[in-house]
Each structure stands twice: as C-alpha cells, then as structure tokens.
Amino acid sequence: MKIAIVGPQNTGKSTFLADLLKVYPGYTTPTETYRDLVIRKGLHINQETGEESQRAIRDFLFDQAKENTSADVFFDRSVIDNYVYTALAVERGTASAALRDETYTMMLDSFGSLDRLFFIPTAVSVVLHNDLLRDIDTGFIDVTNRMFIATLLDVVRKSPIAVDVISGKREERVALAQRIIGHS
Q: Of 7, 39, 65, 130, which cross-links 120 as Cys (Cβ 3.0–4.6 Å)?
C-alpha cells in the first residue's frame, strides 16, 4: 500500500513515519525528503515561500510518488501539502493563481500513484520545534490546518483516494494506523 502522510508543519508527521517504519519493517520510504530538497536548493518555505520554491517542491513530490515502484511505501508529504502552501502563498501575493491551479491538477493526478492519505491535523500535544524548516507561528499553523481541511473535503468529492484522520498521542496514532493497514 502506498500511503502519504500529510498535514501542517509541526504536527509530528516525520515522527509518525519513523514509528510506522518500526511497526512495518517491510515498508520503505524514499531516502530523500522534501526537506533535503529545501536545504540543498536553499528554498524558502512556509510564510516566506514563493513561486520558485513551491514549483520545485511540487515537482519533487509529484515525481517521488510517480517514480516509486515499491509496493509498500510511506511518503513524508505529497502534492496536497504543496497545494495547500501554494494556495496560502497566492493569498499572500507571493505565488500566482496559475501555479495554484496547475498544482491542483497535478495533486489530483498524483493520487493515482497513492492508495491513501493519512492526515495529521494540528494538536496542542505536539511540541513546536524551531529548526528553520518548520514554522512555529501558531496562527499560521492554524490557517494552514484549516486550508488542509477545506482541501481534503474538496478532494474526497473529486478523487477516489482514501483519507484517514490520524490523531492522538504517538502510540494512539500507530494503533489507529494498524487498524487501517492491518497488523504486521
């Protein structure tokens, strides 16, 4: 099964992915993440993002899902994440509506390479980490979370992709994923 873990920054997606890989050793995950791309190319993200950064991240995530041939894989983010941040950049005037619309189409297309999305919404129980790759502005995180929810509601009407909300403490998140995926 190909599953993308999606949601706003600072919600524990990467930690959840690491926990899942311990429970499901037969699953893989791409060796390079979008964070590696951001560092390698010096891209601006979150509230400082713009057209160039969003296009580079989108293309990376799209290609990663399309080119991965593993039967069982977890992805740390997907094009839906990129769409949300691009839409927010359009609202701030740092990206074009044309890029947003192009990304929307690519997002729907990318779902053909995935079996489901695990959406991790914001939670007060997650400690915010200021590592220069994640935004710790709670107002921005809240706006991002609302945009994710609106986008996911739209997506489930237009795409056959399965979407599961994963919340709770670490062990609760893993237990919920096990109920969905099946036990190892």
A: 7
HEC secondary structure over the chain: CEEEEECCCCCCHHHHHHHHHHHCCCCECCCCCHHHHHHHHCCCCHHHCCHHHHHHHHHHHHHHHHHCCCCCEEEECCHHHHHHHHHHHHHHCCCCHHHHHHHHHHHHHHHHHCCEEEECCCCCCCCCCCCCCCCCCHHHHHHHHHHHHHHHHHHHHHCCCEEEECCCCHHHHHHHHHHHHCCC
Quickly state the pLDDT bin for 129 (edges 50, 70, 90): low
Q: Which two tokens stand for residue 44?
A: 């601006």
**Residues 81, 145, 9, 87, Cα dihedral to 10°:** 40
| Residues 108 and 152: beta-carbon distance below 8 Å | no
> Phi and psi of 132, rounded to 5°?
70, -5
Distance separating alpha carbons of residues 173 and 157, to the nearest angstrom: 25
Taking each helix axis from N to C terminus, what angle separates 170-181 and 13-23, rounded to the nearest 10 degrees? 60
pLDDT bracket for residue 123 (50, 70, 90): low
